[in-house]
Design brief:
Two copies of one chain form a homodimer. In chain A, 41% of the residues lie in helices and 16% in strands. By secondary structure, chain A is α+β, with helices and mostly antiparallel strands. The structure holds a DNA duplex.
DNA sequence: AATAATTTTTAGATTTGTCTAAAATAATTT
DNA sequence: AAATTATTTTAGACAAATCTAAAAATTATT
């Protein structure tokens, strides 16, 4: 089934609010979507008629099984595009959201399957949020800053805490990017600096401060 | 200035029809866009009010300077996305059009600039059509089939005449893809087969039949 | 040049998604 | 528990993009 961009935005927003509160109410959705309560009610009727939500007048609403599945498909598309924009086109992670908001509505399944493959089936987007898989399952991966990764264990770089020019310059120099495989060879207690190895590159050393701002997740978790 | 997806589709279609006839008439645009003449008239009024077309009632219409520039921006986006879908995601060129029709309306300038760079500023899309540059200039490049490329001259693969499984298998085997730099080292008159060299790969030989179905354009033309 | 045929435009309706203002319902306060 | 306040829904309107059917203008035909 296909949905309009507007319907998809509502589905996505309801999904987001569901996380925090059991039943979602009209006003909070209106605030979240920067629209009026009356518009929300109108759309709720439509989403109900399309069997995406559980909705009783005046009593709040939530996505049903079908609605949740749809939400995860949209979120998957959004996060894959964000990953693409950052890792392939080199955009800053704090700039990609509005563009991904547009790209996420392009609805070809084949496109998304291929994009996913092309990107190496990433599990985490550049903001550190998990990317649902094709079945709509959210990976549960704990992320740790690089200074907390046990020595000798490999991690995949998922995000960095800031994308200042200075930070990017340094990451670039070391060849560290989102998706990089990284292993801590040795950590020096004296100043917190780390000797690290990035997949096919020679080992190098980074400061403890840098390490605190680079996040990785456990490679091994399925 | 920003335009709706619908306005952009009209602009693009008018541009396409202008090539064939001086003045475009309502009916042919309606046929081309698979819509009714009345809908076309409605949109013409809007495009005129937005100063994109020259339009006198009952006398036909055409894009003005501004409209042409806009059309070329849309076509540029469309063809860059097609190039992306084929070369990066491995889709067949005969499948990419409808997806590019959606992607072309995503309107970030920064996105397109980066996409263009990422793709290596391609000049020709996978259907063999030229890609307008950022200034809206259409490159004029003659394409020749590989068997007509002079020996020792390099060409860039722009398109292939069919994308059957068999063809793709062979191209894959030889490491030939759209955008590949290719040089003919020697051609054998006996059977038309060619010894060729692809950028960083060892030389290899392909049949004359294959060569007839691979199109390249002249590397050197600015 | 008058009539017929074709093309284009207008008039009015429809759908989607939005809005404001008023009415209905629920929650809170006294 | 009655009154006040807050939330939600309805009613009616609007803009964008489309449509059908009828009217207007142009082109072709006799």
């Amino acid at each position: 089934m296909k949905f309009s961009a507007s319907e998809e935005n509502y589905i996505k927003s309801i999904y987001g609010l569901q996380g925090k509160t059991e039943k979602v109410n009209t006003n909070s959705l209106a605030v979240h979507m920067n629209t009026r309560a009356a518009s929300v009610t109108d759309m709720l009727k439509k989403l109900k008629s399309k069997k995406l939500i559980e909705y009783k007048k005046y009593y709040g609403f939530r996505l049903n099984e079908f609605g949740n599945r749809e939400a995860l498909r949209i979120i998957r598309r959004h996060r894959l595009w964000e990953f693409f924009l950052v890792t392939k086109l080199g955009m800053n992670w704090d700039k990609v959201h509005p563009i991904a908001e547009e790209l996420e509505h392009v609805s070809s399944n084949d496109l998304i399957k291929r994009l996913d493959n092309y990107l190496g089936q990433p599990k985490i987007d550049p903001h550190g949020d998990p990317i649902p898989d094709a079945q709509g399952k959210m990976p549960v991966l704990k992320q740790v800053s690089l200074d907390n990764l046990p020595t000798k264990k490999t991690g995949i770089v998922s995000s960095v805490s800031s994308q200042t020019h200075q930070m990017m310059e340094m990451l670039n120099h070391y060849g560290i990017g989102i998706g990089s495989q990284i292993k801590v060879l040795k950590s020096f207690d004296f100043d917190g600096s780390l000797q690290i190895k990035i997949s096919k590159q020679p080992a190098c050393t980074i400061s403890g401060q840098a390490a605190q701002n680079i996040f990785v997740y456990d490679d091994q978790e399925k």
